């Protein structure tokens, strides 16, 4: 199959859950023998290249502002894609889904697949007009696609209830990760194994770093707090976080952390606890990543986060409640044995239920069924039958 991915920023993944998802999926499909093309934004990677580990890269421009970056790039990518006669054109995100009508009209032989990664209009960085278009994008994601994939069971239920459309649940995934001893984090930030709490994400309001800093400031723990991540058109929010830290030397801002870098691996490998206090998610890859390193996770109790740690593989607190977060932090900081046991159990759990090998096979099967559109039975039935045979 000749496959195109549209909506992500590019490869290799530097930051972002969607970018990580697309990278692992594209590489996996390439290994299965497919001809994979990923549309990339000109500004995203430091060095342009025509291929990345066998995956073809196509660079298209964008207007790099908060509101126009994605949609302008998706427009140029969609126009280009209809000329290349792809078998599959796969859009990632409800924002990019707004333009999925282009290949539906101008490349009718291509099958359009859309992955619904999260309810983006709930993200705090967007204004009212952007939220309207993201809501419209949700409608497009379930109506313009030949098949729609949702990355969490919560999103699958949401699309069924709100739009009356059945979607295919295929989750985000994670690879096995090797623990790396602290060296770079010690040299740069004075961090050693188990002496810090880790938050690693883009610094966007809905990720909830402000809740964590406020709760931490009330505890005065001996362990440090590491805020790893950078602005995503959210410089004002980043300034707010630094003001909340009040120059506390135990609160460390690392700046941006590149995916799969030595720094990234060391931060996960040596953290005492991983915390994600987000208000909105799809299925958080950072939590799955932390669990794959054997880290115990403390997350807000939104359904998407709870889905990731369900079964006793993590802890939760009440979303947006600083006092609830403070109390759970206090408890976990005084129970290191429990934190260690839950972290080790979580590592085994995610490598069984969220491994990329199975996820790539499931997506590949969706593509095959979409291309065989003359079949009387539904693609959802095909997928259920395939997964049942693989168990």
Secondary structure elements and their pairing?
Elements: E1 2-6, H1 17-31, E2 35-41, E3 51-52, E4 55-60, H2 69-81, E5 88-92, H3 101-106, E6 111-116, H4 128-143, E7 147-150, H5 153-163, E8 168-169, H6 184-189, E9 196-200, H7 209-219, E10 224-228, H8 235-245, E11 251-255, H9 262-270, E12 273-276, H10 285-292, E13 297-300, H11 303-309, E14 315-317, H12 322-333, H13 336-353, H14 356-371, H15 379-390
Parallel strand pairs: 1-2, 1-5, 2-4, 5-6, 6-7, 7-8, 9-10, 9-12, 10-11, 12-13, 13-14
Antiparallel strand pairs: 3-4
Order of helices and strands: EHEEEHEHEHEHEHEHEHEHEHEHEHHHH
Q: Give the name of the CATH architecture of the largest domain.
A: 3-Layer(aba) Sandwich
Low-pLDDT residue spans: 374-379, 384-391
Structural class category: alpha/beta
Q: Name the strands of the widest sheet in spatial order.
A: 3-4-2-1-5-6-7-8
Helix percent reads: 40-55%
**What is the count of DSSP helices, taking H or I runs of 4+ residues?**
15
* Overall geometry: globular
Give the end-to-end Cα distance, rounded to a whole number of Å: 26 Å
Major β-sheet annotation: 8 strands, mixed
In round numbers, the mean pLDDT is: 91
Based on CA atoms alone, the radius of gyration comes out at: 21 Å
CATH class of the largest domain: Alpha Beta
Beta-strand content bin: 15-25%
CATH superfamily of the largest domain: Glycogen Phosphorylase B
The number of distinct β-strands equals 14
Regarding quaternary structure, what we see is single chain
Number of domains: 2
